[in-house]
Design brief:
Layout: E1 3-4, H1 7-13, E2 22-26, E3 29-32, H2 37-46, E4 54-62, E5 67-75, E6 80-88, E7 95-97, H3 106-117, E8 120-122
Parallel strand pairs: 1-6, 3-6, 7-8
Antiparallel strand pairs: 2-3, 4-5, 5-6
């Protein structure tokens, strides 16, 4: 079983240049500004002592006013885990940086979120639908989705 790293502890270990990317701290997670997501994730992955080399999963939640993306990371070397959250307030063209270049396992997960929630991942190598056909209108897990009937 991994030990959860507190958001405040992870933030304290961040490089000073990334401190502006912290939007909030919770006992169980670290909330980062979306424009800093990739840089903070890269730091957490590559920094000795942290080494978050495994992305367990990514999920997205529609809170009506904004989308929240939740990343669960694990360091196999140090046996600790961390939850990173980021928000996207643009409902018309929501876009978040892709982390596929950091964790290859993010490729299908980001495509799933794109397909069902409509969130684009900037820099993703193959951003297209994975479950629904290309002509499908809308994104069925959004709170504002209607089936057209």
């Amino acid at each position: 079983m991994t030990l959860a790293l507190a958001g405040s502890e992870a933030a304290a270990r961040l490089d000073k240049s990334l401190a502006a990317g912290i939007a909030g701290l919770n006992p169980d997670s670290l909330l980062v500004k979306s424009e800093f997501l990739f840089d903070i994730a890269a730091f957490l992955k590559d920094e000795p002592g942290l080494n978050f080399n495994y992305l367990v999963h990514i999920t997205a939640i529609d809170y009506c006013d904004y989308f929240e993306l939740v990343y669960h990371l694990v360091s196999l070397k140090h046996n600790h885990s961390l939850v990173i959250k980021t928000r996207c307030t643009d409902r018309k063209t929501p876009t978040i940086p892709s982390v596929v270049s950091l964790w290859r396992g993010a490729e299908l997960q980001e495509r799933e979120i794109f397909d069902l929630m409509g969130i684009n991942f900037e820099g993703h190598p193959n951003m297209k639908r994975i479950f629904l056909w290309e002509g499908f209108q809308g994104h069925p897990l959004r709170k504002d989705f209607t089936d057209g009937s």
